UniProtKB/TrEMBL annotation, chains A, B:
<dbReference type="GO" id="GO:0032259">
    <property type="term" value="P:methylation"/>
</dbReference>
<dbReference type="InterPro" id="IPR029063">
    <property type="entry name" value="SAM-dependent_MTases_sf"/>
</dbReference>
<feature type="domain" description="DNA methylase N-4/N-6">
    <location>
        <begin position="40"/>
        <end position="262"/>
    </location>
</feature>
<dbReference type="InterPro" id="IPR001091">
    <property type="entry name" value="RM_Methyltransferase"/>
</dbReference>
<dbReference type="GO" id="GO:0006260">
    <property type="term" value="P:DNA replication"/>
</dbReference>
<keyword id="KW-0238">DNA-binding</keyword>
<dbReference type="Pfam" id="PF18755">
    <property type="entry name" value="RAMA"/>
</dbReference>
<keyword id="KW-0949">S-adenosyl-L-methionine</keyword>
<dbReference type="InterPro" id="IPR002941">
    <property type="entry name" value="DNA_methylase_N4/N6"/>
</dbReference>
<dbReference type="GO" id="GO:0008170">
    <property type="term" value="F:N-methyltransferase activity"/>
</dbReference>
<feature type="domain" description="RAMA">
    <location>
        <begin position="280"/>
        <end position="372"/>
    </location>
</feature>
<dbReference type="InterPro" id="IPR002052">
    <property type="entry name" value="DNA_methylase_N6_adenine_CS"/>
</dbReference>
<comment type="similarity">
    <text>Belongs to the N(4)/N(6)-methyltransferase family.</text>
</comment>
<keyword id="KW-0235">DNA replication</keyword>
<keyword id="KW-0808">Transferase</keyword>
<protein>
    <recommendedName>
        <fullName>Methyltransferase</fullName>
        <ecNumber>2.1.1.-</ecNumber>
    </recommendedName>
</protein>
<keyword id="KW-0489">Methyltransferase</keyword>
Amino acid sequence: MSAVRRIEQLAPQPKKAEWLDTIIKGDCVAALERLPEKSVDVIFADPPYNLQLDGTLHRPDQSRVDAVDDAWDQFDSFAAYDAFTRAWMLAARRVLKPNGTIWVIGSYHNIFRVGSVMQDLGYWLLNDIVWRKTNPMPNFRGRRFQNAHETMIWASRDKASKSYTFNYEALKAANDDLQMRSDWLFPLCTGKERLKNEDGGKLHPTQKPEALLARIMMASTKPGDVVLDPFFGSGTTGAVAKRLGRHFVGIDREETYIAAAAERIAAVEPLDDIDLALMQGKRAEPRVAFGSLIEAGLMKPGTLLFDAKRRWTANVRADGTIAIGDDAGSIHRVGARVQGLEACNGWTFWHFEEAGSLKPIDELRATVRKGMQVAAA
Amino acid sequence: MSAVRRIEQLAPQPKKAEWLDTIIKGDCVAALERLPEKSVDVIFADPPYNLQLDGTLHRPDQSRVDAVDDAWDQFDSFAAYDAFTRAWMLAARRVLKPNGTIWVIGSYHNIFRVGSVMQDLGYWLLNDIVWRKTNPMPNFRGRRFQNAHETMIWASRDKASKSYTFNYEALKAANDDLQMRSDWLFPLCTGKERLKNEDGGKLHPTQKPEALLARIMMASTKPGDVVLDPFFGSGTTGAVAKRLGRHFVGIDREETYIAAAAERIAAVEPLDDIDLALMQGKRAEPRVAFGSLIEAGLMKPGTLLFDAKRRWTANVRADGTIAIGDDAGSIHRVGARVQGLEACNGWTFWHFEEAGSLKPIDELRATVRKGMQVAAA
DNA sequence: CCGCAAGCTGAATCGTTAA
DNA sequence: ATTAACGATTCAGCTTGCG
């Protein structure tokens, strides 16, 4: 029996425990209407993009591009797509808690329809977030700009809801004391993270990277929150939610996807509460945040940092902050505080021990930057 | 006398249309309706989005909206903004040439309305472009992500128009030989570039940086093209157009802005023609038939052609075809057939031997083209 | 075992001209 | 209006296979 329970037949008003951390099979509007109202903290939705592709596209080497031509992405008109969007958005709004927020991802093919419908239904837009792709597909015919990003809309249930969750300080501390911007840089979901089908091809045509969902949840949820995904697909939302100590609810129509997602989520190991202190994803180049040393594996949580004269000792945490006892913050803030100064460059102030001698953590940053340059070359 | 002419005080000019390189004062819809249809190559529009349009906002039933009414009706407001957007977009579409394109810039407050209306009116979206700001305004309350970008929509007049201008090769060359992406990085318009009023404050609230307009025009116009800006404001579009050897037409309602923009544009020094040269790709070069190489004596019947790895050998025939045994046809068809592909560019696939090494026959085509240029000069 | 080359692929609204 | 032919066009990153 899979560790992820499934519900195919919901009772009219199921108890909370029944649908939490499950994947519901069926049409998303019908499934949403069976869930209790005001029961979900955050919704992440990756709806069909309504791509309108005519022929087949070939690369310059004449290989064929494997496009998204699934039936679920086909709509007869903009009006039909709008009606579909209104229906699921309305149903989603009912299950959202008054102070809940919703994330919707899309491309220029659909995101303008989506945003307009959201505004019409009373959702209050908080930000649009740009996912900049490090490795987007090129424009093979040289007819347009390389479509190198997707857009996410982050919105509250209505204009009046002001107490939505936004972990501003945590995001900022892990981002070198700069507030998190609306443009995020992440690679596509490829390699081992990408689920494969029995033929070795991609299981799902549009699987999203876990790093993207991780930043979303770290920004807009708290541990124990409920995250709903009405277009569950390969289950990235569930996998990240479980790893980060959040509950999930997935809805999907395809048994193939449900089975694969359930297996995937069952294999996820939740992080310890301590590790959850707050960890962040990659940030915009070329600035290197201290947190990225941890992400890159160059620095492990729990590592001790010292100033050059070993007068102070700090502890590295998983979220990219450091702490001396209860005093936690960015490498810069903690460095400034212990010295009683306004400011401090943590990169040169803090050192790590290697073979008995101290080396500034700036050396590790240099390593990361070199890697970024190589990647960009 | 200002170097920028105004529509009220025009002297008759022999060839150039009266409205070229002028600023038209008035409501943008009315002004657009007085311009000849299909007369403009590119439109750049930075429409207002604050819903406080004092008089220009009308409901679909033509009733006027009181934008400062305390009884705020969200739906009415969006509907009114949509109606305003439809009105100017429709008028703009009439003056756009069949192969013209339009750029519209906005933020998450209005861009979703704008994009939806564009799709509804038949504009065909080519890209959405993200302007990432190097120095955006912080989020002061710490309740959202720093809004660090704006979105531009680039669209053609309709789906059928395929011959819009896109200077792909030039952009790529300027971008370290990588195709230009949909995310652009520019600073805000500040410092000396920013127009000031008599109090020393900013003249216009949303003056766009010239670098942004320069990339737009370098991407989607050719020298001598006509660029229309229906919300001219501080005149950035006109200033950049003049500098880059493009014509402009501006529309604005405010005399203050018109006067400042006229003065600004008058001070602009156009670049020399030689600096305005556009890098052209092969698709802009005259077509050369393979047979003309034989006629020009650059290739003799009986010459052997090879692919780069010498897996196949073909024989040049006097009629401009090539043959492998009995299999004869154009350089493209034979190249495709031996590879088992649908298509093949014979110019780059086939090579001839010179001094023991292989050179693509494309080199001979370049020679012919060079001769054609000399003959035309 | 490593190092390097070659191959594959990702939410894509992806052509023009002459007969 | 339709068809056929011409011929232009890709970036990053991971995987596979060979020496």
